[in-house]
Amino acid sequence: MKKLAFFALGLLCLNCTTIQYDVSTRLVFEGQVNDRQGNPISNNDIEAWIKNSNDIDLIGFTTSNSNGHFELVIPSPKNETDFEITVKGNSIYRGKEYVNIYRSDFQDYYFNLDEIILIEFDDISELIITLNQSNQENTITNIDVSGIIADQTIWVNPVQEEYPEYYHDSYYRQVAKNQTLNLHYEVRNTTGQTNQFNEIINVGSDDTTTYVINY
Amino acid sequence: MKKLLLLLIVIPQLLFSQENEENKIIDTEKEQTFFYKPQFYFYVSHHINSGEHFLADGHKPDFLGGGLQINFMKYHNVKFGLGWEYHEYNVIDKSTIGNINSSFYHAAYAKFQYQWDILKRWSVEPYLGLGATRIQQRYNNSARDDFYGMNFYAGGNFTLKLTKFLSVFIGINYNSIRFNVNTNRNWEDYFNKVNQVQMQFGIIFSVNGNKGL
Prior knowledge:
The complex is a heterodimer. By secondary structure, chain A is mainly beta. Chain A contains one helix and 14 strands, in the order H-E-E-E-E-E-E-E-E-E-E-E-E-E-E.
């Protein structure tokens, strides 16, 4: 009897963690995989993952066609809304992950990833921004860098945080070489006053690019 | 004159006696018109899918499935029956179907068949039918979910009566299914409009016995 009870409990627990799908609803992802010059990357693996607090499940996969284009159709998860699309890299290109995709991001059961630029490993520069606090009353927040970014993880929806993100000492990103980046950040002082700044960072052909913000 | 009188007496008797026999036959057929002893069809089936839809593109059917049909009503040569059929499909394209292990085709249907006896032992049975189809998909080995559609059948059987109670048949039919899958408009036809050809081979057990044997 005890064995039977444990078996039933085990089955129940398995059912708790397994992600359930509604196969009568199909969601579509579409995207275009290119290199930095806009050339299509063919035969590149793309995977769709579903996450909940207990489990993660690979629910669909495909490869880009000869034009670098892909469409991936998956059954809709019944309860979970956290989708991830992994664009696998290879020995030449660094892959990318699109995380925090929600069910509400789909329109007409469709989510477009647009152009996905994969950067060659040899074409990546480590951007190190040193945060030099020259005034003790100031704090720096909301740093954002736009340009050709080589980071692996793309947050489709930002993580909801109760308080603004503060930084200490330094800020890191992986970016493509030989480009101009736009840097945006905010500086707050103790009185609550906030000033916004936009600056330009020139990235050369070095493996490491350094920049200093004095605030 | 005597001969004529004899003829006048005997002929009506003969005529009436013939009419009574015919009436008996007609009455018997009438008794059997709506409720007749059933026919059981047991068959294996083969599905041929073509075109751009999820069964043709994303799946490969097992070579054989199976089915059962029971005809239990008959009016003259038109028979009415209910049936159920089953076929297993393996997923071959996970980019359109998802990471699903396998799909199972179930259909319950009603068919009107016309029995046309072309020879003593041979008959042809054209038919029309309507049914409900369920596609059950299994993933993560044990979990499952399903979606539904309505289907329309048009086809025919070619039947050979082997004994008084047993026949064999081969059949072919067109099966048009309309599913109800919610998806992006570009993919609606892919998931919701299925056309296929089904071939069957099986036996028929007639409780009432085969006509003419």
